[in-house]
Amino acid sequence: MLSRPTKEQLLAIATSYGLQCDAADLAFFLAEIDKVMASYDVLDQLEEPGLPVRYARANVYRPAAGENPYNAWYQKCSIKGARSGRLAGKLIAVKDNVCVAGVPMMNGSALLEGYIPDFDATIIARILEAGGEIVGKAVCEHLCFSAGSHSADTGPVHNPHNFDYSAGGSSSGSAVLVAAGDCDMAIGCDQGGSIRVPSSWCGVYGLKPTYGLVPYTGIFSLDLTLDHAGPLASSVSDVALLLEVIAGEDGLDPRQKDVKVEAYSAALAGEIKGLRLGLVEEGFAWPGLSEPEVDELVRKAAFQFQELGAELTSLSLPLHRLGPAILCPLYFEGSLATVMQGKGMGTNWKGFYGTSLLKAFAHGLASRIDALSDMAKMHLLLGHYMQKQYHGYYYARAQNLVRVLNKAYEDALQQVDILLMPTVPIKATRLPGQDASREERMSGVGKLTVNTCPFNATGHPAMTLPCGIIQGLPIGMMLVGRRWQDSTVLRCARAFEQLRGSS
Questions:
Q1: Considering 146, 170, 172, 174, which one is annotated as catalytic?
Q2: Measured at the alpha carbon of residue 218, what is the angle toward residues 215 and 223, in degrees to the nearest 5?
Q3: Of the residues 95, 343, 427, 447, which is catalytic?
Q4: CB 398, CB 348: distance < 8 Å
Q5: Which of 207, 218, 381, 400, by CA, is between 20 and 30 Å from 236?
Q6: Which residue among the candidates 151, 174, 194, 221 is catalytic per the annotation?
């Protein structure tokens, strides 16, 4: 039987809300609460429905440094799916905020260390049914709160193009493992750029699909209005193939509504002659942020689309510069509600709740909250302050303004078919040294997502593709399309990939 609140506990709760309760009030409510909690007792006697787990889990282990040169693996394993299918022969790594039954999950944080999921996320089940082999969990940043690659409690993830440089985040390990050739494809998740930033800095292809196209069921959430899961790979064809397998409604994710799935692989064969691409001027030359050589390289790469018969124009989108500010309350107040208070799931939505994950994270918060990273603590402290002082006003205001931001992009996408800009306005940065100050470890991380984050709120598909190298470090170009037209983005990326391959 569940424990009932004591008089002292009830009084403390009442006081925290400014509610006046005398001894008679407390006695009355304690008696009434006892009656209601009988229903809670019943829940412990019922078997809750889970998600099916198929296919044997084998060779699960944490690799030693010699087998993990970039510190990008959290766990290795071998989960072989169906004997045939679209992913037969493909090796797939999975970001470590995605639940894979029988494989330890840490989500980059010591608060979850030791947790082993008892269910597979929907996308894992789909990969295995399609014949793919899950070969391990890729390190991600601490609770996915950073766009750098130095916040995971397992240590920094190194860029395979230069060991001393950041790989980007938060899907840091996923991008590195693809770039290093340790897997054919990887799953990443993206709330502000977490697929696209590391893909850009590691020189691989990464797609944040249309919001809701890929089910988020069984994945640790940051804010239900920003969550996206998607594919990373070393070729556009593999991105399209993995998307084909994981896309579509599962009936368990409230983010999904009227999902429109396309034949992504078949769409790659089409030409892009006549396709209209718009260079978003506000995506370039960010004051105090952009590096001119990155802007120049992306512009030069963009003009290559004209060789393929595409039309390239320049357009102004002033609201793009305000996107990061509009999204700020969603990150801080949204993550407070979903992560800190909702234990990675939140409430008030219908679908599958991973109760074992919820319990594990709740225990970690209760017993080891000081182990939160500085960025996570910032989200907790600022999010709580804003909620306490302003009662969700700015979160609500931001969500309303997202509609204005969305209309600006929609209007632009009536003039052109694809929006184009640098994925990240700067080259990969050096990893902070062991003696770096807290301020140095936090500084600059926010500017990495200025171009990527607005599309998490509006839900447009956005893909980064490698477009050149500066000082040995890859640079990414981002293509953004209309919602549910991920195939157009992929077709455009494929045409560029083929052109570059032949040049």
A1: 170
A2: 75
A3: 95
A4: no
A5: 218
A6: 194
**Domains along the chain?**
7-43 (no CATH), 58-502 (3.90.1300.10)
Q: Distance between CA 358 and CA 353 in Å, rounded?
A: 8
**Does 208 qualify as catalytic in the annotation?**
no
Is 7 one of the catalytic residues? no
Active site residue 95: yes
**99: which 2 tokens?**
């639940």
pLDDT tens for the 503 residues of the chain, in order: 899 999 999 999 999 999 999 999 999 999 999 999 999 999 999 999 999 999 999 999 999 999 999 999 999 999 999 999 999 999 999 999 999 999 999 999 999 999 999 999 999 999 999 999 999 999 999 999 999 999 999 999 999 999 999 999 999 999 999 999 999 999 999 999 999 999 999 999 999 999 999 999 999 999 999 999 999 999 999 999 999 999 999 999 999 999 999 999 999 998 999 999 999 999 999 999 999 999 999 999 999 999 999 999 999 999 999 999 999 999 999 999 999 999 999 999 999 999 999 999 999 999 999 999 999 999 999 999 999 999 999 999 999 999 999 999 999 999 999 999 999 999 999 999 989 999 999 887 878 999 999 999 999 999 999 999 999 999 999 999 999 999 999 999 999 999 988 54
